[in-house]
Amino acid sequence: MLKIVLVGRPNVGKSTLFNRLVRSDKAIVNNQPGVTRDRKYGQGNLVDLNFTLIDTAGINDAFKEKVENESKAQTLIALEDSDIVIFVIDGRVGVLPVEKMYAKSLIKTDKPTIILVNKSEGTRGGLGLSESVSLGFEDVIPFSAEHGEGLSDLYDCLKEKIEYQNRKIDENNGLNIHEKKSSIRLGIIGRPNTGKSTLINKVIGQKRLVTGVEAGITRDSIEVLWNYNNELISIIDTAGLRKKAKVINILEKDMVNDTLRTIKYSDICILLIDASKGIDKQDLTIARMIIGEGRGLIIGANMWDKVLDKKIIKDEIINKLKISLSQIKKISIIFISGLQNQGIEKLFEMVLDIKKRLNIRISTGKLNRWLAPIIENNPPPLFKGKKNNIRYITQVNVKPPTFAVFMSSPDNLQNSYKRFLAASIMEDFNLYGLPVRIMYRKGNNPYIEQ
Description:
Helices cover 35% and strands 22% of the residues. It is of the alpha/beta class. The protein folds into three domains: 170 residues, P-loop containing nucleotide triphosphate hydrolases (Rossmann fold), CATH 3.40.50.300; 177 residues, P-loop containing nucleotide triphosphate hydrolases (Rossmann fold, 3-Layer(aba) Sandwich), CATH 3.40.50; 79 residues, K homology (KH) domain (GMP Synthetase, Chain A, domain 3). The strands form three sheets. The chain has a six-stranded mixed β-sheet with strand order 2-3-1-4-5-6, sandwiched between helices. The protein has a six-stranded mixed β-sheet with strand order 8-9-7-10-11-12, with helices on both faces. It starts with a strand and ends in an 8-residue tail after the last strand.
């Protein structure tokens, strides 16, 4: 089992994170710095990821010197013993000199490292996020260990690194790495009785899931593994999501919560609608949930074989999505019939395409070469007669592609210009149909020494 170590200054929330991931109170948590002094092991898990988690003493100014002490020795042993490093930063304090120095030593270890900007909730948490990109690591995640915010982003990042480390282990042991494929988590979401279970049964070629004409047969989220073109896909069937006002009993509330967890921890969600009835308000509400979680979204217009006037219905669905979900341009729509096994090949080709584009990484240089003519030809609007300079852009995460734009006054940038930048980056980097995120931060280019 792979080992993940938590490092960082005292009192940045390492032990709180440790307790959350091992689901216990093994690590004492207190506002007083330095409570943790030796390394602590626990069996951590996050959705389907299992690992050994190591909590360590906080780094401090002693790490600048060559003074040996027990706490430092314990942390160094834990670091040496680990496969993946999570470097925890206090988002409200920002990056301190000791953290910059420690980051340089981490780079030399060549271990996969995630920068976790803890305490990012609220406006004060943005300081650490904007400064942490200067530490030199690709993966920067805004997080709140106390409130559990950012767990889905941490899951995505850990999953990618764990799978990569497992492949390296297989190579070193002379094993066939093709025996172990990375898995796409594909949630099938929708209102009751839209044909979710029937579709999955047709896809896998067996009656794995119970189906029927009445709504609400599926109560639990059921996960089925299926191999498509040598890509292992975890397909998750879910209970139908009714309007909130109609969900009154405890059982259905639990079913809804289970479905919402599936959305949160999927890579891509297929929103299945009954094409014969068109797209309604509840479908759009579910789509917004999926977009809000940053998951890839495909609209599966099911029961297409029942539709008589296909052109009219098709145009109605496309236009409604265009108007109601304008934050995502060109949402992928596939017209299918689960019962008749129509359009399924095209549906899964789209799944693989979105998976690839969700993981896209664009270099900082390429992004800023793209940005220069954009702001030269279409500069941001003046604010109170003054220029609102955009200085820099960098990608801070994948799944979904997430970018940070540094500028002189982000609070005063008009929404129309934000929409213009989002549309431009989607078009120029082929990010259509993805829930692209752009964060606007105050500051200069963090890679230039002031």
